[in-house]
Amino acid sequence: MTPEADILQAADVAFAYRPDEPVLRGVSLSAAPGRFTCLLGPNGSGKTTLLRCLMGQLEPASGAIRLGERPLRNYRPRELARMLAYVPQLPASSLAFSAADIVLMGRYAHTGPLGLAGPGDVAVAREAMKMTDTLDFADRTLDELSGGEAQRVMIARALAQQPSVILLDEPTSHLDIRHQLNIYQMMRRLAHDWPMAVVCVSHDVNIAARLADELVLMRRGLIVATGAPAEVIREDLLTQTYDVPVDLIAAPGGDVPMVRAK
Amino acid sequence: MSAPGEKPNRDAVASAPAPGPSLSALRLILWTAALLAVAAAVAGACTLVGVIGLSDLTWEIWASRALRMLTAGIVGAALAAGGLALQGLLRNPLAEPYILGISSGAGVGVLLGLALAGWWAAPAWASTPVLAFAGATCSCLAVYLVAQRNGRVDPYSLILSGVIVNTFNGALMLAGNLYIDRYRIADFAYWAMGQLPDATPTSLLAVCGACVAAGWAVLLISSPAYNVLGLGDDVAASSGVSVHRLRLVTFGAVGVMTAAAVALAGPIGFLGLIVPHICRMIFGPDHRLGMIVAPLGGAIFLMIAETLCRTVGPAVGISRVPVGILTALCGGPFFIFLLRTRFRGAGQ
User: Fold this and answer.
1) pTM for this entry
2) A1-83+165-262 fold
3) Nearest Cβ partner of B239 from A81, A133, A167?
C-alpha cells in the first residue's frame, strides 16, 4: 500500500493567549489517512492548544494550516465539519438524548434547515455505531451509559460527520484500562480500515507507543521529536520531554519498550 | 444477543435494531396538528367562558373576547419559544426572558413611550414595539456583557447579571413613574404587573404578531443547532454550528419576540420557564419538536390563565387578578423546584 498524501498540514504554527506568553512557538505537524498519530507531552506543553488550532477554533498568530487543498481558515463551518471532526475529553453531561439521536447530530452539516435525518443519514449513523460497537445501546440516553460507552458514542457521532480527519483530546483520561485499550484499538482501526487521519492528544505514553503509528513529543510549545514509536521512545528524548529521568523496560513480545519514570 | 464475554459477531450486529431517529417529519407534523387543534379548542372554549352570563351579546363583544384570546396566544407563544431558545442556547434550565431582564428592559422602553407621549405623537402601534425592542436589546446586551468571560457564559453569572439588570430596570421604571401623567400611573402599575388589556388596538396586535412570527421562524430554523450545542461549544463548532452567530441571532430573535409580548401585555414572568420544562417532560429534549410544541403550549397556558384570572376573581368577589401575578405565583415555586433538582451539572 502506498502511503497517502498528507491531508492536514500545520507549518510553523505559533499561538499565544497573552502576547508575552507563547503557548505554541513554531510547530509543524502533518496527518495522513491511514495514520494514527498521538501527541504526547507534559501538562501545559501546548497539545490541546495545537489541537484547537488544527480544528479551526483558534487562529494561529503565525504559520499556516492547510486542510486538503485549501488553507483551514477558508472553510465555512459546515464545510469544515464534513472534512474534520472532534471528540472532546469528556462526553457531555446531563443530556437526555438517546445514543442514536446523538450520533445523528453528527449529520448536522449534511442535513437541511430542520436537520431531519433521511434514510441516507440513518445508514451513515448506523455504520458509525457499528464501527464503534454502540448499536446495542442505541436507545439508551448518554446519562445511562458508562464512561467508556458514552465516549464511544461521542466517537460514533464524530464518525457520522464522515470526516477525513478526526481529532481527539485525551479521550480516555477518565476511563479504566480496559476501556482505554478498547478506545485506542478503535482509533487504530479507524485510521487503518476507514481509512482516515487520526490525531489524538494522549497522556499515556505506553498505550500510545503500543498502538499509534506515529508519536509527536511536545514540550513548552515546541516539538521535541516526531516519528514511529520505536524511533521516539528513547531515554534521552523522553527525559527531555517530561523533565523526569525514565527507565525503559523491555516489553514482553513487543519491539517498543515500556516507559517508567524513575 | 451474544453470550457474556463473547465478542459480538457480525451477524448479531447486523440484526440489531436500526438506530432510527426519534424525530421524523411525520411525528413533527402530527404533533403540530394535534397541538394546533388543542390550541384552537382552548381559544374557542375560553372565548365562550368569557361571554357566559352576558345577556346582550353583540358581535363586538364576541370579537373583543376572541381578539383577547388571540393576544394571549401570541404573548404566550412568544415567551415560551423565547424561554426554550435561551435555555438551549445557554445550556441553562433557568434561562427565561423575564429572569434575564429582557422583559423588564422592554418595560423601560414602553414606559419611556408613555412618559414621552405628551411630546411625541407617533402612533402606538409603531412607537410601543420599537421602544420595547430598544429596551429589550439594551438589556440583552447588558446581561450578556456582564456575564460573559472570553465569550463563554457560565450559568451562575448569567442569572446574577439578569438579577442585576432586572433591579436596575426596576429602578428606572420607578423613576419613570414620576414623569408620567399622574392619571395614568394606575394604568401603568397594572400594565407593569403583566396584564392583557381589555382592548388591544388591532394595528398594534398585527405588528406584534408579525414580530413574534418572524422571531419564531428564526428560532425554529436554529433549533437543530441548540441540540448540537448541548454537546458543548467545541463539539458544536466542529459539527458545523457557527456558535457566535447563533448567539447573536438567538438573542436578536428573542429580543424582538419579548418586546412584542411586553408591548401587548406587559412583563409576564416565569411562563417562559414553566412551559418549556413541561414540554420537555412530555415531548423529550429535542429542540426541533420543542420549538413547535412549546409556543403552542405557551399559547394554551396563557389563554387558560387569562380566562381564570378574568372569571375566578370576580366569581369569588375579588377584583380580577392580573395574569402576570398568577404566572409569578405558579412560577416562583417552580423556579425553586428547578433550582433544587435540575440545576446540578447544568452548563458544563
Assistant:
1) 0.88
2) Rossmann fold (3.40.50)
3) A81
